[in-house]
Structures are given as C-alpha cells and as structure tokens.
Amino acid sequence: MGIVNVNDDSFSGDGTPDVDMALQHAAAQVEAGADVIDVGAESARTNRRAIPAAEEAERFAEFLELWPAVAKRLRPADDRQVWPPVLSANTWRPAVARAVLERGVELLNDMGGLPNARNARLCARHGAALLIMHSVGEPKVDHRAAQWDDIMAELQQWFRRKMALAVSAGLNEDQLLLDPGIDFAKQRADNLRIYRELESLHACGRPILLPVSRKTVIGEVLGIEDPSARDAGTVACLAAGLVRGAQLFRVHKVAAAYRAVRVLTAVERARV
Question: What does pTM read for this prediction?
C-alpha cells in the first residue's frame, strides 16, 4: 500500500496540496509495484488542527476525479501485482467517507477506530472494503499516554468487537482488514511487542495491514528525529511483519518495500 498525501503537513514531509504532483506520485508508486494506493487529505498529526469535513472532501475530490484516467495509462510492474490497483481513502469522518465512496473508492481506511457503525454501513452500501485501525478516542487528539496491561489481548478483544459491529452494519467478514495502529495510543514497548507477536492476531481470521513506514517507534529505537531518515528501519519492521504473516504493508517508499518483500519471500520459499 503506497501512501499519497494530498496535504502540506504530512508528518514525513512527503505531502503536497498540488493534485498534479500527487497524481504523479501515485502513478510512480503503482509503477514501482504498489497493489493499493492509499490517499489521505488530512494529516493524522495531533499537533495540527483538524480541518473541516468540507475542506477534506474537497481535497479528495479533484484527485479522485482525475485518477481513473491516470491509472488507465499505467501498466503492472509484473504478473504478481494486483491489477488494476485498489484505490483506498484514509479518512474517518462519515461525511467524507460517503463522498469518497460515491467517487469509486474501493477501500475505506478508517483511522477513527470505528466508534459506531456509520462508516461500516456506508461501505456496505457501496460494496467497499473496510480497514479497521486500532486506537482510542477521537482522531487528531494525542492519546500517546494510553496504557495497556496486555496490548495483544487488547487488540484481539477490540478487533472482535469492531468486526461484530461491522458485520451488524451489513458487511461480510471477507470485506474487513485489520490494522494494529502502530504509534496510535501506544507506548514504545507496545509497538515493539506488536511487531514481535503479530502472529497472535491471526486468531481474528482477517488479513493484517502493518503500518511500518517511518513510524515514531523507529525514531525512538534509532534516535532519529527526521521521519524521512527512517527508511532503513522501515524495511526492518517490514521484514519482522512479513515473517509473522502480515499481508499488507503501508509505506512511503514502495520500490524499497516491494524489493524487500520479493527477496524475503524468495528466502522463505527456498527454506520450505
């Protein structure tokens, strides 16, 4: 999953409000092997104000209008790539979710923790998949002080509740993906334990997206403040997740991630 930020305050400095540049960036990610393009119009940073829903929807609108024509000109990197690439929108407000789903988005990446059934109901209505990310409280609020006695037990219980909520709203379980929410409402030890014990989340029976790219926990381990300098640590987290069964990785640098997956997969198959 390649990250495309149509905003100017992305935490890693890769966002752009210029839609043409965002489209070029998305196209380059597809050409580098991305199976999914995840478009965001508002930074998740808690030290930035929340923008109005109408402004967020407007930022999405032009990209989503122009993307089909851009995507039509692209060709897959190889026969392993999902084709055509899946279009995902990273948002949590139901009004914005409705707007992007009406424009053909196939996957809703809900960073809001699914506090109610509204976004699940919208996905069911539009035949879209739903990615449920673990967090607590409202987005754009700093929840880093959250404490967990057992983060893995919390994740399993929480995901089962949210999956039941989504199914009650009309989705099938096979339309659901799970994201443990690295760095969201978690301490460094929680994040590292998720990477180490990711296999336990397979008990939920759904594919796991692992957000590995340039995360704060990488900066904490390596002592690197600049997120754009954390790409080597990103590949390390990707490797840890791949051998523990993660099926999807959300990254800024698709080419490096794609090549890492290819090599690691070849190693695992040779061992078998």
Answer: 0.92
Question: What percent of the chain lies above the pLDDT cut of 70?
Answer: 92
What CATH number is attached to the domain comprising 92? Answer: 3.20.20.20
DSSP letters of 6-63?
Answer: -SS--TTS---S-HHHHHHHHHHHHHTT-SEEEEESS---TTSPPPPHHHHHHHHHHH
| pLDDT, tens only, 127-185 | 999 999 999 877 656 766 788 999 999 999 999 999 999 999 999 999 999 999 999 99
Tens of pLDDT, residue by residue over 255-264, are: 999 999 999 9
Reference 208, options 163, 169, 164, 168; nearest CA is: 163
Ranges assigned E (strand) in 134-174:
none
What angle, rounded to 10 degrees, do the helices at 254-271 and 231-243 form?
30
The count of other CB atoms within 10 Å of the CB of residue 218 is 23
Instruction: Tokens for 177, please give them.
Output: 């993906």
Percent of the chain residues topping a pLDDT of 90? 82
Total of domains in the chain: 1
Q: C-alpha angle with apex 66: 65 to 69, nearest 5 degrees?
A: 120
Q: In what order do the strands lie in the sheet with 176-179?
A: 2-5, 36-40, 86-90, 107-110, 129-133, 176-179
Q: Phi, psi (5° rounding) for residue 169?
A: -85, -5
Q: How many Å is the maximal CA-CA distance in the chain?
A: 52
Domain containing residue 237: 2-271
